[in-house]
Amino acid sequence: MEKLPKSFCLLSCVLVLLLSSVSAVTDDPQDKQLYIVYMGSLLTGKEYTPMSHHMSILQEITGESSIEDRLVRSYKRSFNGFAARLSEPERERMAQMEGVVSVFRSKKLQIQTTASWDFMGLKEGNNTKRNLAVESDTIIGLFDTGIWPESESFSDKGFGPTPKKWKGVCSGGKNFTCNNKLIGARDYTGEGTRDLDGHGSHTSSIAAGNAVAGASFFGIGNGTARGGVPAARIAAYKVCNSTDCTDDAILSAFDDAIADGVDFISISIGEAGEALNYQEDTIAIGAFHAMAKGILTVNSAGNSGPSPTTVSSVAPWILSVGASTTNREFLTKFVIQNGKTLVGRSVNAFDLEGKNYPLVSIRSEQVKGKILVSIYSFGSDVAVATIIKDDPNLATVTPHPLSALLPDDYDFVVSYVNSTKSPQGTVLKTEAVFNQKSPKVASFSSRGPNTIAVDLLKPDITAPGVEILAAFSPLGSPSEDEDRDRRHVNYSVISGTSMSCPHVTAVAAYIKTFHPDWSPAMIQSAIMTTAWSMNASETGVASTEFAYGAGHVDPIAALNPGLVYELDKADHITFLCGLNYTSKTLKLITGEAVTCSGNNTLPRNLNYPSMSAQLSKTNSSFTVTFNRTVTNVGTPNSTYKSQIVLNHGSKLNVEVSPSVLAMKTVKEKQSFTVTVSGSNIDPKLPSSASLIWSDGTHNVRSPIVVYIDIPDDSV
């Protein structure tokens, strides 16, 4: 589910955001809807009291002297505003008030659902270089379904006092206690910060959970579960309950988290299958102001793949993360009595102890005590186990014994059942198997191109998001079918870009422990330009840079990128001006009065670590240029030479000028231009290349992508 970010405004601007579907409504007190009234940055002066101002505005609009039942929240720490229940006529009157910038409707957002750290090279304990003193002073704010404070993953054993910079609170509700690991908790749902779902505990432990030996899902995946920065502190902001996340809650969380003193915001929440315009995207607005305060926001790309144009996190000041596989997979074998073994996928914790059971097809009415070979994609409550047909690249937890077979294997089983007298078989308990396969982008991971800023490549990066074992809430159901699955677990297996997001949040925090003065953009650049390159593993758009951006995150290489692409608030405003946003729209996003110059910079010339351009459909021949500036964060007296590598069989002509950069000092900046030309490119696929700046030690790689508008069926 998506949230509204808090904005900062130099003027007393007001933004009203509708939080629920609006049908025909009247002034009937029973017909009130929840709105957010955003009023920019806090006014200075001892005489100004935000709460009093909010109440007086509400009294003026409603004509009521008592508005306690109308005022839901006041935002008064990092920016100014409030949430209130208003009728449609009242909303209209609010929109006409002097200083109101916009009135728009918000949508419900969705949560996007550990050997992974070893897979990426971030080993446990002394096997990885760490700056523990700084890591212990790092605070990660997680916007999610809350957290299970009693989990071993969040124990404060061995932790020192809370960092002095922390200004937050522990307001988790009844029987909820923070500690020196879980240093803060806030609830915006009315349920308390305790995680009733499991999603928030899972993402929190991926990012910064303690190393917990012997963690498993009923023995499956047994090992040490840990976060990427286990010495870091966690602040939990519960913005979602089990069913949805509301805009007013996320806006409050942004308001608090920035003022509380978090270093990073990790938000595994997003719009389902589509991107919103920046001025309507609450996460983008909130993240903009977090960026202005030096806080990097990491966001899941979405779970609506593999179709094109489904990525929902598309702002350049957000690090947007897709999901990919690791070198571990969960396999569930189905053994037929004739000795043939078929390997399927699921997370099946049930042990049939090798006993054979009769096999029946869906046409049979008598399935009790038998294994059902079903044409449907779900298991049976009555059968001993179920065999289904799937084309899976991930395993999910099932409430009953189940194995999902590839189509050919499933067809073989159907044929065997139909042609064999008294066929029998058994389903084995799931095994965790390690392989040497290269990471592959998950089918569910949302793909580009970016529909809001067509010359900005999204997602930015990919990270482990398939079959991730991490902490869970004992009150949540480990499978999606909570009515049938009443098991209670402390650790569970989930897949989603929700899981890849906190992996990258942890990598960003890891980088900052060694480079505390680096800005959010420098950290993002380091992550993107040092990523593992990924080759197409399938065909179509689903296997290109629109799936994985710059590639797969590499935590160790990101510590020493050599060169970085720097950006600040002013650069992002210039980018928005290049999108031809009006001053009124810019105020919605930036929170301040902005006037664009007449000579707007093309959006593709934002100093971003990737380069992308959408071409006109009418031009058979084309030439596009990208202007970039890099900053030396490596060693003095370094000479970087450019190299171009063409990808996916593209026939682009790419020239870099100058082709050599001689960096005499650290922090020195040098600019260059990339010119890309070609003709008659494939309208169904992007044409791409990689620019690599190398000094013999560092390889600073940026993807270059040009494309014609991609049709929705180009999968």
TrEMBL record:
<dbReference type="InterPro" id="IPR023828">
    <property type="entry name" value="Peptidase_S8_Ser-AS"/>
</dbReference>
<feature type="active site" description="Charge relay system">
    <location>
        <position position="199"/>
    </location>
</feature>
<dbReference type="InterPro" id="IPR015500">
    <property type="entry name" value="Peptidase_S8_subtilisin-rel"/>
</dbReference>
<feature type="domain" description="Peptidase S8/S53">
    <location>
        <begin position="136"/>
        <end position="551"/>
    </location>
</feature>
<dbReference type="InterPro" id="IPR037045">
    <property type="entry name" value="S8pro/Inhibitor_I9_sf"/>
</dbReference>
<dbReference type="InterPro" id="IPR045051">
    <property type="entry name" value="SBT"/>
</dbReference>
<feature type="signal peptide">
    <location>
        <begin position="1"/>
        <end position="24"/>
    </location>
</feature>
<keyword id="KW-0732">Signal</keyword>
<keyword id="KW-0720">Serine protease</keyword>
<dbReference type="InterPro" id="IPR010259">
    <property type="entry name" value="S8pro/Inhibitor_I9"/>
</dbReference>
<keyword id="KW-0325">Glycoprotein</keyword>
<comment type="similarity">
    <text>Belongs to the peptidase S8 family.</text>
</comment>
<protein>
    <submittedName>
        <fullName>Uncharacterized protein</fullName>
    </submittedName>
</protein>
<feature type="domain" description="Subtilisin-like protease fibronectin type-III">
    <location>
        <begin position="605"/>
        <end position="706"/>
    </location>
</feature>
<keyword id="KW-0645">Protease</keyword>
<dbReference type="GO" id="GO:0006508">
    <property type="term" value="P:proteolysis"/>
</dbReference>
<dbReference type="GO" id="GO:0004252">
    <property type="term" value="F:serine-type endopeptidase activity"/>
</dbReference>
<dbReference type="InterPro" id="IPR000209">
    <property type="entry name" value="Peptidase_S8/S53_dom"/>
</dbReference>
<keyword id="KW-0378">Hydrolase</keyword>
<feature type="domain" description="Inhibitor I9">
    <location>
        <begin position="35"/>
        <end position="111"/>
    </location>
</feature>
<dbReference type="InterPro" id="IPR034197">
    <property type="entry name" value="Peptidases_S8_3"/>
</dbReference>
<dbReference type="Pfam" id="PF05922">
    <property type="entry name" value="Inhibitor_I9"/>
</dbReference>
<feature type="active site" description="Charge relay system">
    <location>
        <position position="498"/>
    </location>
</feature>
<feature type="active site" description="Charge relay system">
    <location>
        <position position="144"/>
    </location>
</feature>
<dbReference type="InterPro" id="IPR036852">
    <property type="entry name" value="Peptidase_S8/S53_dom_sf"/>
</dbReference>
<dbReference type="Pfam" id="PF00082">
    <property type="entry name" value="Peptidase_S8"/>
</dbReference>
<dbReference type="InterPro" id="IPR041469">
    <property type="entry name" value="Subtilisin-like_FN3"/>
</dbReference>
<dbReference type="Pfam" id="PF17766">
    <property type="entry name" value="fn3_6"/>
</dbReference>
